[in-house]
Specification:
Mean pLDDT: 85
Strand content: over 45%
Largest sheet: 5 strands, antiparallel
CATH architecture of the largest domain: 7 Propeller
Strand order of the largest sheet: 1-26-25-24-23
Number of strands: 37
Length: 468
Amino acid sequence: MMKLIFIFFLFNSLTLADVSYNMQLIANLNEHTHLNGYSIGITGYTAPDGKEYAILCCNEGTAFIDISDTSDVHEIDFLPGISSDWRDVKIWSHYAYIVGYVQGCALQIADLQYLPDSIHFVKTYSFPGFTAAHTLQQSGPYLYVNGLDYIKGGVFILDLSADPENPVKRGEWEVTTVHDCRIMNDTIWACNGYAGTVTVISAVDKNNLFTIASWQNGFYPVAHNCDRSRNRKYLYTTDETFDMPRELKIWNIEDLQNVLFSGTWHPPGIDSAVAHNIEIYGDYALIAYYSAGIRIADITDPANPVEAAYYDTYPNDNGTNWNGCKGVFLMPSGKIIANDKQTGLYVLKTTFPIIGIEPNYAAAVEFSLSQNYPNPFNPVTNIQFNIPLLRGVTAEGGRGVFVKLTVYDLLGRDITTLVNRQMQPGSYNVDWDASNYPSGVYFYKIEVRQTGSSTGDFFESKKMVLVK
Protein backbone atom coordinates (compact mmCIF):
# COMPACT_ATOMS: atom_id res chain seq x y z
CA MET A 1 0.00 0.00 0.00
CA MET A 2 2.83 2.42 0.93
CA LYS A 3 4.47 1.63 -2.39
CA LEU A 4 1.26 2.55 -4.26
CA ILE A 5 0.99 5.84 -2.34
CA PHE A 6 4.62 6.66 -3.15
CA ILE A 7 4.04 5.94 -6.85
CA PHE A 8 0.88 8.12 -6.83
CA PHE A 9 2.70 11.09 -5.32
CA LEU A 10 5.68 10.60 -7.62
CA PHE A 11 3.36 10.56 -10.66
CA ASN A 12 1.53 13.64 -9.36
CA SER A 13 4.81 15.51 -8.89
CA LEU A 14 6.02 14.62 -12.36
CA THR A 15 2.69 15.73 -13.86
CA LEU A 16 2.87 19.12 -12.10
CA ALA A 17 6.48 19.53 -13.18
CA ASP A 18 5.40 18.99 -16.77
CA VAL A 19 2.78 21.73 -16.45
CA SER A 20 4.82 24.39 -14.68
CA TYR A 21 8.33 25.48 -13.81
CA ASN A 22 9.07 28.49 -11.61
CA MET A 23 5.46 29.66 -12.04
CA GLN A 24 2.46 29.35 -9.72
CA LEU A 25 -1.20 29.45 -10.69
CA ILE A 26 -3.21 32.00 -8.72
CA ALA A 27 -6.54 31.69 -10.53
CA ASN A 28 -8.18 30.43 -13.71
CA LEU A 29 -11.49 31.97 -14.78
CA ASN A 30 -13.33 30.32 -17.65
CA GLU A 31 -16.78 31.87 -18.08
CA HIS A 32 -17.15 32.30 -21.84
CA THR A 33 -16.52 28.93 -23.47
CA HIS A 34 -20.24 28.81 -24.24
CA LEU A 35 -19.80 32.05 -26.23
CA ASN A 36 -17.42 30.47 -28.76
CA GLY A 37 -14.37 30.87 -26.53
CA TYR A 38 -11.63 33.45 -26.39
CA SER A 39 -9.89 35.76 -28.82
CA ILE A 40 -6.33 37.09 -28.96
CA GLY A 41 -6.14 40.28 -26.92
CA ILE A 42 -5.44 40.71 -23.24
CA THR A 43 -4.21 43.65 -21.21
CA GLY A 44 -4.26 44.92 -17.65
CA TYR A 45 -5.49 48.08 -15.97
CA THR A 46 -4.46 49.38 -12.54
CA ALA A 47 -6.98 51.90 -11.22
CA PRO A 48 -6.00 54.98 -9.18
CA ASP A 49 -7.12 53.16 -6.01
CA GLY A 50 -4.63 50.36 -6.74
CA LYS A 51 -7.19 47.74 -7.75
CA GLU A 52 -6.12 45.55 -10.67
CA TYR A 53 -8.20 44.39 -13.62
CA ALA A 54 -7.61 41.97 -16.46
CA ILE A 55 -9.29 42.89 -19.74
CA LEU A 56 -9.88 39.72 -21.71
CA CYS A 57 -10.95 39.61 -25.35
CA CYS A 58 -13.51 36.93 -26.17
CA ASN A 59 -15.07 35.97 -29.49
CA GLU A 60 -18.37 37.64 -28.56
CA GLY A 61 -17.05 40.67 -26.69
CA THR A 62 -14.67 41.81 -23.95
CA ALA A 63 -14.62 40.78 -20.27
CA PHE A 64 -13.49 43.08 -17.45
CA ILE A 65 -12.22 41.02 -14.51
CA ASP A 66 -11.20 42.11 -11.01
CA ILE A 67 -7.96 40.32 -10.06
CA SER A 68 -7.11 42.49 -7.02
CA ASP A 69 -8.04 39.83 -4.45
CA THR A 70 -6.41 36.61 -5.60
CA SER A 71 -8.91 34.59 -3.55
CA ASP A 72 -11.83 36.25 -5.33
CA VAL A 73 -11.04 36.75 -9.01
CA HIS A 74 -14.36 37.62 -10.64
CA GLU A 75 -15.85 39.24 -13.72
CA ILE A 76 -17.28 42.73 -13.17
CA ASP A 77 -18.70 43.50 -16.60
CA PHE A 78 -18.85 42.28 -20.19
CA LEU A 79 -18.99 44.49 -23.29
CA PRO A 80 -20.65 42.64 -26.20
CA GLY A 81 -19.23 43.00 -29.69
CA ILE A 82 -19.68 41.60 -33.19
CA SER A 83 -18.53 37.98 -33.17
CA SER A 84 -14.84 37.84 -34.14
CA ASP A 85 -12.06 35.29 -33.72
CA TRP A 86 -9.60 38.20 -33.50
CA ARG A 87 -10.06 41.05 -31.06
CA ASP A 88 -7.50 43.30 -29.38
CA VAL A 89 -7.53 45.90 -26.59
CA LYS A 90 -5.28 48.70 -25.33
CA ILE A 91 -5.57 51.32 -22.55
CA TRP A 92 -5.06 55.08 -22.47
CA SER A 93 -5.85 57.00 -19.28
CA HIS A 94 -9.05 55.39 -17.94
CA TYR A 95 -10.32 54.29 -21.37
CA ALA A 96 -10.19 50.90 -23.06
CA TYR A 97 -10.02 50.79 -26.87
CA ILE A 98 -11.08 47.58 -28.59
CA VAL A 99 -10.86 46.47 -32.22
CA GLY A 100 -12.21 43.39 -33.98
CA TYR A 101 -11.35 41.63 -37.22
CA VAL A 102 -14.87 41.47 -38.65
CA GLN A 103 -16.31 44.39 -40.61
CA GLY A 104 -18.47 46.53 -38.36
CA CYS A 105 -16.35 45.97 -35.24
CA ALA A 106 -14.43 49.22 -35.81
CA LEU A 107 -13.14 50.73 -32.52
CA GLN A 108 -15.15 50.35 -29.31
CA ILE A 109 -14.43 52.83 -26.51
CA ALA A 110 -15.17 52.00 -22.86
CA ASP A 111 -14.74 54.26 -19.82
CA LEU A 112 -13.15 52.45 -16.85
CA GLN A 113 -13.38 55.20 -14.22
CA TYR A 114 -16.55 53.67 -12.74
CA LEU A 115 -14.84 50.41 -11.77
CA PRO A 116 -15.21 48.40 -9.60
CA ASP A 117 -18.93 49.03 -10.09
CA SER A 118 -19.05 48.72 -13.88
CA ILE A 119 -17.61 49.96 -17.14
CA HIS A 120 -19.45 52.51 -19.29
CA PHE A 121 -19.64 51.95 -23.03
CA VAL A 122 -18.92 55.28 -24.74
CA LYS A 123 -19.30 54.64 -28.48
CA THR A 124 -18.10 52.74 -31.52
CA TYR A 125 -15.76 54.90 -33.55
CA SER A 126 -15.29 54.51 -37.30
CA PHE A 127 -14.81 56.58 -40.43
CA PRO A 128 -15.28 55.88 -44.16
CA GLY A 129 -12.97 53.02 -45.11
CA PHE A 130 -12.36 51.88 -41.53
CA THR A 131 -14.74 49.28 -40.13
CA ALA A 132 -12.37 46.66 -38.67
CA ALA A 133 -8.76 46.08 -37.60
CA HIS A 134 -6.56 43.20 -36.53
CA THR A 135 -4.47 44.65 -33.69
CA LEU A 136 -3.78 47.82 -31.71
CA GLN A 137 -0.71 49.36 -30.16
CA GLN A 138 -0.61 52.42 -27.93
CA SER A 139 2.09 54.90 -27.00
CA GLY A 140 1.20 58.03 -25.06
CA PRO A 141 -2.04 59.58 -26.35
CA TYR A 142 -1.77 57.76 -29.69
CA LEU A 143 -3.32 54.53 -30.94
CA TYR A 144 -1.68 52.66 -33.80
CA VAL A 145 -4.34 50.69 -35.68
CA ASN A 146 -3.10 47.72 -37.70
CA GLY A 147 -4.45 45.63 -40.53
CA LEU A 148 -7.58 44.67 -42.40
CA ASP A 149 -9.87 46.95 -44.34
CA TYR A 150 -8.38 50.46 -44.45
CA ILE A 151 -6.63 50.88 -47.85
CA LYS A 152 -3.93 48.13 -47.86
CA GLY A 153 -4.36 47.16 -44.23
CA GLY A 154 -1.23 48.99 -43.07
CA VAL A 155 -1.14 51.19 -39.96
CA PHE A 156 -2.73 54.53 -39.13
CA ILE A 157 -2.62 56.75 -36.05
CA LEU A 158 -5.49 57.96 -33.89
CA ASP A 159 -4.79 60.99 -31.69
CA LEU A 160 -6.48 60.90 -28.25
CA SER A 161 -4.79 63.95 -26.74
CA ALA A 162 -7.63 66.46 -27.20
CA ASP A 163 -10.53 64.17 -26.31
CA PRO A 164 -10.08 60.43 -25.56
CA GLU A 165 -13.74 59.81 -26.43
CA ASN A 166 -13.39 61.37 -29.88
CA PRO A 167 -10.18 60.20 -31.58
CA VAL A 168 -8.74 62.25 -34.44
CA LYS A 169 -7.17 60.41 -37.35
CA ARG A 170 -3.62 61.48 -38.14
CA GLY A 171 -1.10 59.92 -40.55
CA GLU A 172 -0.99 56.50 -42.17
CA TRP A 173 1.51 54.09 -43.69
CA GLU A 174 -0.04 51.96 -46.42
CA VAL A 175 2.91 50.48 -48.35
CA THR A 176 1.77 46.98 -47.41
CA THR A 177 -0.15 45.17 -44.67
CA VAL A 178 0.78 45.46 -41.00
CA HIS A 179 -0.24 42.51 -38.85
CA ASP A 180 1.02 44.02 -35.59
CA CYS A 181 3.61 46.57 -34.50
CA ARG A 182 5.63 47.83 -31.57
CA ILE A 183 6.10 51.52 -30.77
CA MET A 184 9.43 52.66 -29.34
CA ASN A 185 9.82 56.38 -28.85
CA ASP A 186 8.43 57.77 -32.12
CA THR A 187 9.34 54.75 -34.23
CA ILE A 188 7.02 51.99 -35.44
CA TRP A 189 8.46 48.49 -35.75
CA ALA A 190 5.92 46.88 -38.08
CA CYS A 191 5.46 43.17 -38.71
CA ASN A 192 4.09 42.80 -42.22
CA GLY A 193 2.53 39.35 -41.89
CA TYR A 194 2.46 37.30 -45.08
CA ALA A 195 4.24 40.11 -46.92
CA GLY A 196 7.25 38.56 -45.21
CA THR A 197 9.02 41.70 -44.04
CA VAL A 198 9.72 43.77 -40.95
CA THR A 199 9.59 47.53 -41.53
CA VAL A 200 10.88 50.37 -39.36
CA ILE A 201 8.73 53.49 -39.79
CA SER A 202 9.28 57.03 -38.57
CA ALA A 203 6.33 58.51 -36.67
CA VAL A 204 8.07 61.62 -35.38
CA ASP A 205 5.63 63.63 -37.47
CA LYS A 206 2.31 61.94 -36.71
CA ASN A 207 0.88 63.26 -39.98
CA ASN A 208 3.73 62.06 -42.17
CA LEU A 209 4.90 58.47 -41.68
CA PHE A 210 7.76 57.16 -43.80
CA THR A 211 9.96 54.06 -44.08
CA ILE A 212 13.36 54.07 -42.39
CA ALA A 213 14.37 50.47 -43.13
CA SER A 214 12.91 47.11 -44.12
CA TRP A 215 14.18 43.54 -44.31
CA GLN A 216 12.98 40.04 -45.17
CA ASN A 217 12.00 38.12 -42.05
CA GLY A 218 14.21 35.11 -42.80
CA PHE A 219 12.92 31.74 -43.93
CA TYR A 220 9.14 31.12 -43.99
CA PRO A 221 8.84 34.84 -43.25
CA VAL A 222 5.40 35.38 -41.70
CA ALA A 223 6.27 38.36 -39.50
CA HIS A 224 3.59 38.23 -36.81
CA ASN A 225 4.67 40.38 -33.85
CA CYS A 226 7.88 41.69 -32.30
CA ASP A 227 9.59 43.32 -29.35
CA ARG A 228 13.02 44.75 -28.65
CA SER A 229 15.67 43.84 -26.07
CA ARG A 230 16.41 46.08 -23.13
CA ASN A 231 19.71 47.25 -24.66
CA ARG A 232 17.82 48.11 -27.89
CA LYS A 233 20.30 46.08 -29.97
CA TYR A 234 18.12 43.05 -30.74
CA LEU A 235 14.63 42.54 -32.12
CA TYR A 236 12.65 39.34 -31.58
CA THR A 237 9.96 38.31 -34.06
CA THR A 238 7.34 35.60 -33.86
CA ASP A 239 6.03 33.76 -36.93
CA GLU A 240 2.46 32.52 -36.66
CA THR A 241 2.90 29.70 -39.15
CA PHE A 242 2.71 25.91 -39.24
CA ASP A 243 5.89 25.84 -41.32
CA MET A 244 9.26 25.49 -39.65
CA PRO A 245 10.77 27.02 -37.60
CA ARG A 246 7.56 28.20 -35.76
CA GLU A 247 9.79 29.76 -33.13
CA LEU A 248 11.39 33.01 -32.06
CA LYS A 249 13.70 34.73 -34.54
CA ILE A 250 16.46 36.99 -33.21
CA TRP A 251 17.82 39.97 -35.17
CA ASN A 252 20.77 42.24 -34.49
CA ILE A 253 19.43 45.72 -35.28
CA GLU A 254 22.40 47.89 -34.29
CA ASP A 255 22.74 48.93 -37.95
CA LEU A 256 19.32 49.27 -39.58
CA GLN A 257 20.91 49.32 -43.02
CA ASN A 258 22.52 45.96 -42.28
CA VAL A 259 20.21 43.98 -40.00
CA LEU A 260 21.80 40.62 -39.12
CA PHE A 261 20.01 37.34 -38.39
CA SER A 262 21.32 36.06 -35.04
CA GLY A 263 19.42 32.79 -34.72
CA THR A 264 16.23 31.24 -33.41
CA TRP A 265 15.00 30.05 -30.05
CA HIS A 266 12.41 27.58 -28.84
CA PRO A 267 11.86 26.13 -25.35
CA PRO A 268 13.82 22.95 -24.60
CA GLY A 269 11.95 19.92 -25.90
CA ILE A 270 9.33 22.07 -27.67
CA ASP A 271 9.82 21.91 -31.42
CA SER A 272 6.25 21.71 -32.76
CA ALA A 273 4.35 24.44 -30.90
CA VAL A 274 3.94 27.89 -32.48
CA ALA A 275 5.29 31.10 -30.92
CA HIS A 276 2.42 33.60 -31.12
CA ASN A 277 3.15 36.85 -29.23
CA ILE A 278 6.17 38.18 -27.33
CA GLU A 279 6.23 40.88 -24.64
CA ILE A 280 9.55 41.99 -23.12
CA TYR A 281 9.92 43.33 -19.58
CA GLY A 282 13.47 44.20 -18.56
CA ASP A 283 15.61 41.11 -19.09
CA TYR A 284 12.69 38.70 -19.53
CA ALA A 285 10.66 37.79 -22.58
CA LEU A 286 7.11 36.58 -21.92
CA ILE A 287 5.90 34.51 -24.86
CA ALA A 288 2.38 33.26 -25.59
CA TYR A 289 3.40 29.96 -27.17
CA TYR A 290 0.03 28.49 -28.19
CA SER A 291 -0.08 24.78 -27.22
CA ALA A 292 3.09 25.12 -25.10
CA GLY A 293 1.40 27.75 -22.91
CA ILE A 294 3.31 30.66 -21.36
CA ARG A 295 7.08 30.55 -21.79
CA ILE A 296 9.44 32.98 -20.08
CA ALA A 297 12.98 33.41 -21.38
CA ASP A 298 15.86 35.15 -19.63
CA ILE A 299 17.39 37.44 -22.26
CA THR A 300 20.16 38.96 -20.18
CA ASP A 301 22.31 37.77 -23.07
CA PRO A 302 19.91 38.93 -25.82
CA ALA A 303 21.32 36.68 -28.55
CA ASN A 304 21.10 33.57 -26.37
CA PRO A 305 17.78 33.27 -24.49
CA VAL A 306 17.52 30.74 -21.67
CA GLU A 307 14.20 29.37 -20.44
CA ALA A 308 13.47 30.75 -16.96
CA ALA A 309 9.88 29.63 -16.32
CA TYR A 310 6.75 28.25 -17.92
CA TYR A 311 3.13 27.35 -17.28
CA ASP A 312 1.36 25.14 -19.78
CA THR A 313 -2.22 26.42 -20.09
CA TYR A 314 -2.90 23.70 -22.69
CA PRO A 315 -1.35 20.48 -21.34
CA ASN A 316 -3.22 18.28 -23.85
CA ASP A 317 -0.30 18.45 -26.28
CA ASN A 318 2.49 20.68 -27.58
CA GLY A 319 1.47 20.23 -31.20
CA THR A 320 1.41 22.46 -34.24
CA ASN A 321 -2.02 24.07 -33.88
CA TRP A 322 -3.78 27.27 -32.82
CA ASN A 323 -4.85 25.87 -29.42
CA GLY A 324 -3.63 27.25 -26.11
CA CYS A 325 -2.13 30.54 -24.99
CA LYS A 326 -2.66 33.52 -27.30
CA GLY A 327 -1.65 36.53 -25.19
CA VAL A 328 0.24 37.42 -22.01
CA PHE A 329 0.65 40.63 -19.96
CA LEU A 330 2.62 41.59 -16.85
CA MET A 331 0.86 43.73 -14.23
CA PRO A 332 2.85 46.35 -12.27
CA SER A 333 2.32 44.24 -9.14
CA GLY A 334 4.13 41.31 -10.75
CA LYS A 335 1.01 39.28 -11.50
CA ILE A 336 1.01 37.72 -14.95
CA ILE A 337 -2.26 37.42 -16.84
CA ALA A 338 -2.71 35.22 -19.88
CA ASN A 339 -5.44 34.40 -22.37
CA ASP A 340 -5.99 30.76 -23.39
CA LYS A 341 -8.20 30.10 -26.40
CA GLN A 342 -9.98 27.17 -24.75
CA THR A 343 -9.85 27.86 -21.02
CA GLY A 344 -9.92 31.62 -20.55
CA LEU A 345 -8.04 33.80 -18.08
CA TYR A 346 -5.01 32.67 -16.11
CA VAL A 347 -3.55 34.73 -13.26
CA LEU A 348 -0.07 33.59 -12.28
CA LYS A 349 3.14 34.64 -10.60
CA THR A 350 6.76 33.63 -10.97
CA THR A 351 8.98 32.43 -8.15
CA PHE A 352 11.39 35.26 -8.98
CA PRO A 353 10.82 38.99 -9.67
CA ILE A 354 10.35 40.02 -13.30
CA ILE A 355 9.05 43.55 -13.30
CA GLY A 356 12.41 45.25 -13.52
CA ILE A 357 12.98 44.73 -9.79
CA GLU A 358 16.58 43.58 -9.55
CA PRO A 359 17.69 42.85 -5.98
CA ASN A 360 21.26 42.99 -4.75
CA TYR A 361 21.35 41.44 -1.30
CA ALA A 362 24.50 43.23 -0.13
CA ALA A 363 23.48 44.87 3.11
CA ALA A 364 22.74 48.58 2.84
CA VAL A 365 23.90 50.95 5.58
CA GLU A 366 20.78 53.14 5.61
CA PHE A 367 17.50 53.76 3.85
CA SER A 368 17.94 55.72 0.64
CA LEU A 369 16.11 56.62 -2.55
CA SER A 370 18.32 57.58 -5.50
CA GLN A 371 17.60 59.99 -8.31
CA ASN A 372 16.21 58.12 -11.30
CA TYR A 373 18.52 57.57 -14.26
CA PRO A 374 18.36 58.72 -16.96
CA ASN A 375 16.59 61.96 -16.13
CA PRO A 376 15.05 63.43 -18.25
CA PHE A 377 14.07 60.10 -19.85
CA ASN A 378 12.03 58.56 -22.67
CA PRO A 379 10.28 56.21 -22.09
CA VAL A 380 12.15 54.00 -19.54
CA THR A 381 14.00 55.10 -16.43
CA ASN A 382 15.56 53.25 -13.51
CA ILE A 383 14.97 53.95 -9.80
CA GLN A 384 17.25 52.57 -7.09
CA PHE A 385 16.48 52.27 -3.38
CA ASN A 386 18.22 50.69 -0.39
CA ILE A 387 16.81 48.82 2.60
CA PRO A 388 19.25 48.39 5.54
CA LEU A 389 19.46 45.57 8.04
CA LEU A 390 17.12 46.25 10.96
CA ARG A 391 16.49 44.49 14.24
CA GLY A 392 14.54 41.33 13.42
CA VAL A 393 14.97 41.87 9.69
CA THR A 394 17.36 39.59 7.83
CA ALA A 395 18.24 39.02 4.21
CA GLU A 396 17.33 35.37 4.46
CA GLY A 397 13.72 34.83 5.48
CA GLY A 398 13.40 37.47 8.18
CA ARG A 399 10.33 39.60 8.75
CA GLY A 400 11.33 41.99 6.03
CA VAL A 401 9.81 45.43 5.58
CA PHE A 402 6.79 46.58 3.63
CA VAL A 403 7.79 48.77 0.69
CA LYS A 404 5.56 50.90 -1.50
CA LEU A 405 7.01 52.86 -4.43
CA THR A 406 4.47 55.08 -6.17
CA VAL A 407 4.54 57.50 -9.11
CA TYR A 408 2.47 60.71 -9.00
CA ASP A 409 1.68 63.31 -11.61
CA LEU A 410 2.11 67.07 -11.15
CA LEU A 411 -1.37 67.33 -9.59
CA GLY A 412 -0.46 64.78 -6.95
CA ARG A 413 -2.55 62.00 -8.44
CA ASP A 414 -1.32 58.44 -7.90
CA ILE A 415 -0.84 57.11 -11.46
CA THR A 416 0.98 53.82 -10.90
CA THR A 417 2.50 51.70 -8.15
CA LEU A 418 5.85 50.13 -9.01
CA VAL A 419 6.38 48.19 -5.77
CA ASN A 420 3.84 47.19 -3.12
CA ARG A 421 5.06 44.21 -1.12
CA GLN A 422 7.27 42.87 1.64
CA MET A 423 10.99 42.99 0.81
CA GLN A 424 14.24 41.93 2.45
CA PRO A 425 17.28 44.17 3.09
CA GLY A 426 19.34 45.00 0.03
CA SER A 427 19.76 47.35 -2.90
CA TYR A 428 17.02 47.30 -5.53
CA ASN A 429 16.62 48.65 -9.05
CA VAL A 430 13.16 49.17 -10.52
CA ASP A 431 12.39 50.16 -14.10
CA TRP A 432 9.45 52.41 -14.95
CA ASP A 433 8.27 52.22 -18.53
CA ALA A 434 6.32 55.44 -19.16
CA SER A 435 5.27 54.57 -22.70
CA ASN A 436 1.63 54.97 -21.68
CA TYR A 437 2.04 58.42 -20.13
CA PRO A 438 2.40 61.93 -21.62
CA SER A 439 5.47 64.13 -21.33
CA GLY A 440 5.71 66.10 -18.11
CA VAL A 441 6.98 66.31 -14.55
CA TYR A 442 6.37 63.32 -12.29
CA PHE A 443 7.24 62.48 -8.70
CA TYR A 444 8.09 59.12 -7.19
CA LYS A 445 7.73 58.39 -3.49
CA ILE A 446 8.92 55.50 -1.37
CA GLU A 447 7.25 54.46 1.89
CA VAL A 448 8.92 51.81 4.06
CA ARG A 449 7.68 50.34 7.32
CA GLN A 450 8.52 47.24 9.27
CA THR A 451 5.97 44.48 8.85
CA GLY A 452 3.36 44.78 11.57
CA SER A 453 4.25 48.38 12.39
CA SER A 454 1.69 51.15 11.99
CA THR A 455 4.31 53.89 11.68
CA GLY A 456 6.67 54.44 8.80
CA ASP A 457 10.43 53.98 9.08
CA PHE A 458 11.31 55.92 5.94
CA PHE A 459 9.62 58.28 3.48
CA GLU A 460 11.22 60.12 0.59
CA SER A 461 10.19 61.52 -2.78
CA LYS A 462 11.99 62.85 -5.85
CA LYS A 463 11.13 64.57 -9.12
CA MET A 464 11.67 63.19 -12.64
CA VAL A 465 10.94 64.51 -16.13
CA LEU A 466 9.52 62.53 -19.04
CA VAL A 467 10.32 64.08 -22.43
CA LYS A 468 8.83 62.57 -25.60
